[in-house]
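question for whoever is on the cluster today: can someone run the full assembly for these? two chains, 222 residues total. i dont have access anymore since they changed the login thing
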Amino acid sequence: DVKVTQSSRYLVKRTGEKVFLECVQDMDHENMFWYRQDPGLGLRLIYFSYDVKMKEKGDIPEGYSVSREKKERFSLILESASTNQTSMYLCASRSRDNSPLHFGNGTRLTVT
Amino acid sequence: EDKVVQSPLSLVVHEGDTVTLNCSYEVTNFRSLLWYKQEKKAPTFLFMLTSSGIEKKSGRLSSILDKKELFSILNITATQTGDSAVYLCAVKEGAQKLVFGQGTRLTINP
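^ ran it for u. tokens below:
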């Protein structure tokens, strides 16, 4: 069974802090994704990666960056956290074919 | 702009009722439509639909796609309190991108 693990379930950070959200998958998937989920807006794609060291911007990349140094790990970085980045962050992965996404349990980030 | 719209946004029914959730879409390069169920944590995969008119079933849940009218429905019969969740519809656009709807929050009262 595919496992996508996000390192933190809840995080509270201050405005201006640098924040790292970590995601690890154990199924050798090529593709990994970061979404944020907000009430009334659904899931919106921040960044995705289709291979090691490769990244593509999603629909809302502003204020975020990503890192994929190893195939199993995809990190989301908030260079200088702001209150409008308070949200639920979901990591997902899938193989290169047309298979469904597998999601992690999410990280609820609060920026004060 | 690619768009996925779900309706209703919220639905409250009694245990045993049948519900129909709707998902309409406008995307430029449709590949497939997916349904997910989200309780308190990770969305879990329910169905993937690629062809019109072929119903997918899993127990009391079923789903069908209409690629001409650009919509899908998710049916749940004989609902149970464990069906309470947010149901997400997503459309795969092109090789990589999934576009999600806002979700339908379903509450089943005993």
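summary bc i know u wont read the tokens: The mean pLDDT of chain B is 94. Residues 3-105 of chain B form a domain with the Immunoglobulin-like fold (CATH 2.60.40.10).
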